[in-house]
Amino acid sequence: MKLFSLGLLLLSFLWLGACTRVPDGVEPVQNFQLQRYLGHWYEIARLDHSFERGLTLVTADYSLNPDGSVAVVNTGYSKGRDAWQLAEGRAEFVGPENVGHLKVSFLGPFYSAYIVIALADDYQYAMVSGYDKSYLWILSRTPTMPQAALEQFLQKAKAMDYPVDQLIFPKQEAQPVIKNSVQPSAPGSVQ
Asked: Which sequence spans correspond to the domains of the chain?
């Protein structure tokens, strides 16, 4: 019986990890330009999930791999652990490269949706969804985002039935850009 339960759990994990669909009522950004999207992003808001719970100073860095896929480096500071958390992965397009619908993997062959659902014309702000509406991130090229731009994103998310009242706004400030798995020191410490 334990073997069956373990198999069922593994099958569930595989199904969730491989899910790259677009949620109902959501459209990925069209005319998406990956080269303009690459670079450093600050997390302004998110729907809470266990893999980011308690993290502040969350950033994402995207760069091109030699094979054309996207290198993903996510970092966040855990005050409870007094340590930086680092997740490295890769992303690739699900369909045409001018549509903001990618799949991202942090665990080998298991992918999940990364869908750019709103993007400022100048690529300074973005809103990203997962495969269902319990995943939502608002990102900015700077540690803060003008209230007017944030309100536009919140209204768009609300219109698509995301639970915007459940968004959290983690502490954010300028941090060194993470490259090659080098982590900055703890906030307030001297390097």
From this structure: 2-168
CATH code 3.30.470.10 for 2-168: no
Mean pLDDT by 10 residues, the chain (191 residues): 37 52 95 98 96 94 97 95 95 97 91 97 98 97 97 98 97 60 41 27
b/e code 77-111 from CB counts within 10 Å (16+ = b): bbeeeeebbeeebbbbbbeeeebbbbbbbbeeeeb
SS3 76: strand
Determine the Cα–Cα distance for residues 66 and 47; give it in Å rounded to an integer: 32
Q: What length is written for the chain?
A: 191
**Rounded Cα–Cα distance for residues 159 and 60 (Å):** 26
Query: Amino acid identity, residue 117?
Result: I
Q: How high is the pLDDT of residue 191?
A: 27
- The whole-model pTM stands at 0.82
In 10 A of CB 167, how many CB atoms?
Answer: 17
Dihedral (C-alpha) 36, 42, 44, 46: value to the nearest 10 degrees? 90
